[in-house]
Design goal:
This protein is α+β, with helices and mostly antiparallel strands. The protein is built from four helices and seven strands; from the N terminus they run E-H-H-E-E-E-H-E-H-E-E. Keywords: Acyltransferase, Transferase.
Length: about 170
């Protein structure tokens, strides 16, 4: 039987690094292919990967979650506090070969639990036009599109979700 598990992971671990590289490569290549008809220049790709250390995804104000499928690293989601009540969801990624097997919803649920654990009552995220699968996932799980909450040059859609109060 196949199964998903999700747990916090140090940003600097080998598994987290490999998944960050896969995520960044995919979103960068998709953007360049759409806008310039080419893949990301290798040197630019390396600079982009190196520039995002993930420092905001560490305790006490953040967490990187790593999903495993049958024990193998298969996806990530990052959560960081923007203020005491607001968390931001970032780096949501499931490896291409495992998409459609339930990893996205498992990661979202774990990220929402992590946001609660950090004290957040709402969660925000941004994404792009070309990431249609991500936008559909968020909408299916109660995220509502709204006004921009940041000025990220690549952000084209902004979502939010009020987190349900935890029950004892």
């Amino acid at each position: 039987m196949t199964s998903w598990s999700v747990a916090p992971e140090p940003v600097g671990s080998a598994a987290a690094g490999a998944l960050w590289r896969a995520y960044y490569t995919e979103v960068s290549d998709r953007w360049y292919e759409l806008h310039e008809g080419r893949r990301t220049d290798p040197a630019e790709l390396e600079r982009g990967i190196a520039s995002e250390t993930g420092a905001g995804l560490a305790a006490p104000t953040g967490v990187l979650l790593l999903a495993r499928y049958d024990g193998e690293p298969a996806g990530t989601a990052g959560v960081r506090l923007l203020d005491p009540a607001t968390a931001e969801l970032t780096r949501v990624f499931v490896t291409p070969g495992l998409r459609g097997k339930g990893g996205g919803p498992v990661l979202l649920a774990a990220a929402e639990d992590a946001a609660h654990g950090l004290g957040a009552t709402r969660i925000l995220l941004d994404t792009r036009n070309d990431l249609v699968e991500a936008r559909a996932l968020y909408a299916r799980h109660g995220y509502v599109e709204g006004a921009p909450h940041n000025a990220d040059v690549y952000a084209e859609h902004w979502f939010r979700k009020d987190l349900r109060p935890r029950t004892a």
